[in-house]
Design a protein that fits this description.
Shape: globular
CATH architecture: 3-Layer(aba) Sandwich
CATH class: Alpha Beta
Strand order of the largest sheet: 3-2-1-4-5-6-7-8
Structural class: alpha/beta
Oligomer: single chain
Order of helices and strands: HEHEHHEHEHEHEHHHHEEH
Distance between the termini: 43 Å
CATH superfamily: NAD(P)-binding Rossmann-like Domain
Number of helices: 12
Length: 321
């Protein structure tokens, strides 16, 4: 009988009965939250995982249970250093992976930051756009040749993309007043559009890309928000759900939050998810309207916007792919 997956499904539900021995994945952000759980779920089913993290000491401590799962399943976890806010670090990580030359069945671009005070990356980009989008843009494109035919790239977006479209005229808030969640929205729209254009460029070679929204989860991602800010955000989500006649809003557990990433990378039919935005282990509807009720705004899947963002991103990082 076909499994029915949805908002409450966990990574273990998604991978029930799936054998990943011989499969290899790269997961960024493997030092906390969704990245650790994604890696754990994959290695528990026999996969070999390369976990990328800015702080390797923290990642080693956070992935003790992942190593235990790997020993039990015959899978493996290897950690590599990656600071997405530094293109020098991104390029060094990519160069090391290329020199190693082992291929990947999937890349899960999971790492990110949310709503920090205004700041800039090492290369002068606004922190969220530079980290969430440009860092992954350079990393994934540099190692794209390591993706096997049939491989997938999963780009973590967010319902937060509904806060704002990209601004190609002022991506780094040089002329626009900075607002934490506007910047977050722009960056997560960018990660969705990156998947759209990456998919278009690689699908003829059997490689597909998909953007996913993991859901609302209480992880380190919210470390820049006060308890009052988090409560206000949840209140607004609950009000939006009520106004739309939806069930009450509920935060997900970390295994529920990582489920859609794992589903999109391993289980979902590639032709169904390629170039799309997914949530709750299914392809999301494209919807207009304000609020964070779910679904993808049309601008986050617009092919022409995706091409324009790609060109702007290449100019900003000084590299063409």
């Amino acid at each position: 009988m076909t499994k029915i997956l949805g908002a409450t499904s966990t990574t273990d539900d998604v991978l029930d009965g799936v054998d990943l021995r011989g499969k290899r994945f790269l997961v960024t952000g493997a030092s906390a939250g969704l990245g650790v759980e994604t890696a754990r779920a994959l290695v528990a089913h026999g996969a070999d995982v390369v976990g990328a993290a800015r702080d390797l000491g923290k990642a080693e401590r956070a992935t003790a249970a992942v190593q235990d799962a790997a020993r039990s399943s015959g899978g493996s976890l290897e950690l590599v250093q990656l600071d997405l806010a530094s293109l020098a670090s991104v390029r060094a990580c990519a160069d090391a992976l290329l020199a190693d030359s082992r291929t990947f069945d999937g890349i899960i671009a999971n790492a990110g930051v949310m709503a920090p005070p205004f700041g800039r990356t090492e290369d002068g980009f606004e922190t969220q756009f530079g980290t969430n989008h440009l860092g992954h843009f350079v990393l994934v494109n540099r190692i794209a040749s390591l993706l096997k035919p049939g491989g997938r790239m999963v780009s973590l977006s967010s319902a937060g993309h509904r806060f704002a479209d990209i601004d190609l005229e002022d991506p780094n808030f040089e002329h626009t007043p900075y607002a934490e969640f506007v910047a977050y929205g722009r960056s997560k729209t960018a990660t969705a559009l990156f998947a759209v254009e990456f998919d278009r460029r690689h699908r003829d070679h059997g490689i597909r890309a998909v953007a996913v929204h993991p859901g609302g989860i209480n992880t380190e991602l919210g470390r820049h928000m006060s308890a009052e800010d988090m409560a206000a955000l949840i209140d607004s989500l609950e009000a939006a759900h009520a106004a739309a006649g939806l069930p009450p809003y509920r935060l997900k557990s970390i295994p529920q939050g990582a489920a859609t990433s794992v589903w999109a990378a391993v289980v979902a039919p590639a032709h169904d998810v390629g170039g799309h935005y997914c949530e709750d282990c299914h392809v999301a509807e494209v919807v207009e309207g304000e609020g964070l009720r779910g679904g993808a705004r049309p601008y986050a899947l617009d092919g022409e916007r995706a091409k324009a963002l790609w060109a702007t991103s290449e100019e900003l990082v000084g590299e063409r792919f």
